[in-house]
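During the practical work, I worked with a single protein chain and the tokens that describe its fold, as given directly below.
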Amino acid sequence: MRKNYKAILAAGLCISILTGCQETPQNTIVKQKGADNIKEYESAEGKIKDMVNAPKTYQNQASYENGVLIIDTDAEIVLPGTDTMNTYKVSAEEVDQEMIDKVTNAFLDDAKFYHAYGYHDWTKEQYQEEITRLKQYKAEGNIDPYEYGTDENGELYFNIDDVIARDEADMENAPDEIVKEEVKPSFGLEHSDMVKEGEYQNQVDEHEFYGVAETDHGNYNYVITSSVVSADVEFSIEKIRDDLPDPREFSAWTEGRYLMDCEVEDYKGMTEEELKGFMDISYEDAEKIAKEKVEKLGWDWEIYDWDYTVFKHGEDNVSKDNILDGGYLFHFTRVLDGIPVTFTDSYGGALEDMDSTLIPWSYERCEVIVGDDGIQKVEIYNPYKIDEVQTENVQLMDFDSIIKIYEQMMEVSNADIAEFEKQRTYHINKITLGYSRVYDPTVDNHSGILVPVWDFFGGFDVEVEGHHEKNNGEHSRQSFMTINAIDGTIIDRDLGY
């Protein structure tokens, strides 16, 4: 297995998952969760700003566990630009050919599509290119070119001699040219799969599509996967790069916020000005391309936030030397009556534990990367169907009550921090009131409710034995606490309830 890549700049180091409370501790002021609470939502006559009575900013610094845990809140408070908020009943859009056609026509309307099986088979020429490259590495004394490392016995995971020998054997039977099978993006396509050496069997992808889209501005891998048991569906469209020095090298798009906000050991990331230097398209032109594509879906999605992003290759941390391309990443979210569903890092759909038998439902999500030659990458998850308004102008708790819950639950949720870390300081710099979808997976994993919630965004500094990292959270989309604005219950963003 390939080792974890330090090159992602610690998206894992700079993104920590705050465990939500499934059973609220008895010594807190938070109401218990439960499906019955939803029935108690009441309408109000006042306006949002009068009900919540929130200041423009909120500052407070609290220290716990003899200074091991510090919660530093210096936050802008963002309220909706409307007078009222409702709750909405929502359900999962049906995953059918109409949905597939809608996404396909929005982003790949000028493409020819081919089955991925066979399309990515290597030709004799490609095998020879890799053999030559690997032999060059070996001649230079580089026998672990991809830094896979060694196992417990000191043996290399990537044995360069074995790979060369295998490539030479495979090259004998490789085609001179690949054979492409034109298809229509859909489920139920057949392909021939090798079940054992020299024996092939027809398989049917009942809930997946693996294809390649050829367009005048480049080729794209196009993958659609739909869960057999849940409402989850994912559309993935990503441009096939032809500029990688070595196709085996690790490569990925890395979000600018990690580079600008994070400092890990002796790595300082990159500045905004440095990132701008890799943008060969204006923000305005990139935004126009992304909006035009997404608007074709007709799902009331608008840009919630954006970021710089760079495409890097190799095992080292992101630097000017290993960046091949740059672009803009747009986060789209649904907007209802002028109020957005708050976008966060969490995908939802997690399980409470490994023994859980619940079938989860992940959040609706849409992200688009645009570069100087157009769309680079698209990810779409789980579109919602808005069924009806459940409660009009729902009654909201006042901000003072919400902030007391936040401060108490941040302490409770980090009560055992001293067992694992020498010191942690949270920097909460934005508090937002918006919508989030909640559901009860014990009752229905295809429908739920959009409710008003408060999210507390930021970053944190952490010190453990022999290691430290900093994240000021200036550009963060990580919510460290989500509180139901109606009844004060804690929502676990990763679970979705």
